[in-house]
Design goal:
Helix content of chain A: 40-55%
Structural class of chain A: alpha/beta
Oligomer: homodimer
Distance between the termini of chain A: 29 Å
Number of strands of chain A: 8
Mean pLDDT of chain A: 94
CATH superfamily of chain A: Aldolase class I
Order of helices and strands of chain A: EHHEHEHEHHEHEHEHEHHHH
Strand order of the largest sheet of chain A: 1-8-7-6-5-4
Chain lengths: ~325, ~325
């Protein structure tokens, strides 16, 4: 199809998204082994850990140890997340590849409830972050607009709000003389459907036709890959994904804890449609199995169970 | 969007698809209660049981009892499946709404491996079925072409083969003076992606622009709802789905046992995109929870865990 991109870049967030909600009993060495295995699949960027309060997120208490022990593979970036300056300082002490971002939220209510700051205050805070990044020579690559497709407090998000926030992100970048790679739209709480994805992307494209767009999608209500397909049709070539759908849990008891779209399911769909991912699906499936062993319960991914089509294609070709 | 249909019809296959692979210890009364609960959601057709050899499919040993005990709700059709004349005779002794079909397969190898008959023999067999349906005044509504998007033996299925099989189905219908409602394309072993779905539907539409098309999709590799969305964009308004994604299992041990696309996930996506389903999502979610209790393990559906957006929309409207 003329509109599908020739290739996509997938940012693997499994280790961070996954282990931050799983048990704190997972040995550091297992987390390290998982990250190292992911690096062998062809993924180019792995979000490894978050530097947060270990009391609140016990699964990340060993963030610094994980970061220190990972044997890096050339050509792969190992990133992390922080929520405050203390977290960034901890991150900078590790061998991780520290990359900054500009993060705003389309829903002011979500913003206030999550951070205590309204949008204007958040913009000021992002300015302070950009000062820090400049001072510490930390590259800034992507902007992010959260709750871009819906918010549990505000409901549907008018694409005009998303456009306004993208505009604010771009203004902040210009102010700081940062050249962004593009802006991510995040479906933070899983409200998106292919239609709202198309509308949101369309509204942004109308203002900035050449701005690369990324998508951060959660599969809370099962529309994740359909949303990704809608975005691929519009030429979007940048997505966050998690191996095995880490970050979510299929058990009824974990209501609402739905992970990002699953990396291997996305790789399968893309490769089958002629979109290059640069990722070895068979190796990635092995990583997904490893992830399930590590967390000790099934994860939502489908290809980890159904397998790729490779054995059948070989069999068919041999007939 | 101009191309999305105003409404869709979903054929609920959960009881049949699901209970035929689950334990044979499920009490008949539970299966009956589940079917009756589904009938309260607005679904218009429920595939309840299959009349098959109870030695081979112990989960269906009580098919006749289930069929006899279900208290039917007016306006809902309660159907069943059979594989041979013996099965049909058993089905006819029950109060079920017996509906016939014309079933062919695009992959000859799949056909032979599954039934021992090649396509020509299968066509003759379908003629014999049509004679039986005529004799017994059993309505025939849909044609089906299985492995329409791929086959584990033959690999990719050329859309030309699908077109040929649709043609055969329509010829059989004409021969028997049956007026079909349309033809289903079935992704029997989960090879489909949005692109191959579009190509297959496109090829059929090129020959028969006004032929209603139905889709029977399996979510083996996670592309189920993305495939459904691709079909919706092409105006397809008829789908088979299963409550909670019954027929599949998230456990690694059940490799490859992937169910149909999940009814409530499909209802969520459709309703959110302005496509009427006639189904009460909240009641359907209750059915999905019931399904998980009955089978005793998590099922793949996402909305059963994430919930609908209704409470958040109410909250947002109240602010």
């Amino acid at each position: 199809m003329a509109d599908l991109p020739a290739s996509v870049a997938l940012h693997e967030e499994g280790p961070r998204e996954g282990f931050q909600i799983e048990s704190s009993d997972i040995p550091t060495a297992r987390k390290v082994a998982f990250i190292e295995a992911l690096a062998e699949t062809g993924v180019r960027q792995i979000d490894c850990v978050s530097f947060v309060n270990p009391q609140r997120v016990p699964g990340m208490a060993d963030a610094a140890e994980v970061a220190a022990q990972v044997r890096k593979r050339p050509g792969v970036r190992y990133t992390g997340l922080w929520l405050n300056t203390k977290g960034l300082m901890r991150a900078l002490e590790t061998p991780l590849d520290i990359v900054g971002a500009i993060r705003l939220t389309a829903s002011e209510t979500f913003c206030v409830r999550n951070t205590g700051m309204n949008i204007a205050q958040t913009i000021d805070e992002q300015r302070r972050w950009l000062d820090v990044y400049r001072e510490k020579r930390i590259p800034v690559e992507w902007g992010y607009v959260m709750t871009a497709f819906g918010c549990n407090f505000e409901g549907y998000i008018d694409p005009a709000k998303v456009v306004a926030m993208v505009g604010q992100v771009l203004d902040l970048a210009t102010e700081s003389e940062v050249s962004l790679r593009g802006v991510y739209l995040a479906d933070t709480v899983g409200w998106g459907t292919p239609l709202s994805i198309e509308r949101g992307i369309g509204a942004v494209r109308e203002r900035w036709p050449d701005l690369p767009i990324g998508l951060h999608l959660h599969d809370t209500r099962g529309t994740g890959l359909a949303n990704a397909y809608a975005a691929l049709r519009l030429g979007v070539r940048q997505f966050d994904t998690t191996c095995a759908g880490l970050g979510g849990c299929p058990f009824a008891g974990h209501k609402g804890a739905a992970g990002n779209i699953c990396t291997e399911d996305m790789v399968f769909m893309c490769e089958e449609m002629g979109i290059a991912t640069g990722i070895d699906l068979e190796k990635l499936i092995e990583c997904a199995r490893m992830a399930e062993e590590i967390v000790g319960h099934p994860l939502p991914g489908k290809v980890v169970r159904g397998g790729s089509l490779a054995p059948y294609k070989r069999q068919a070709a041999a007939r």
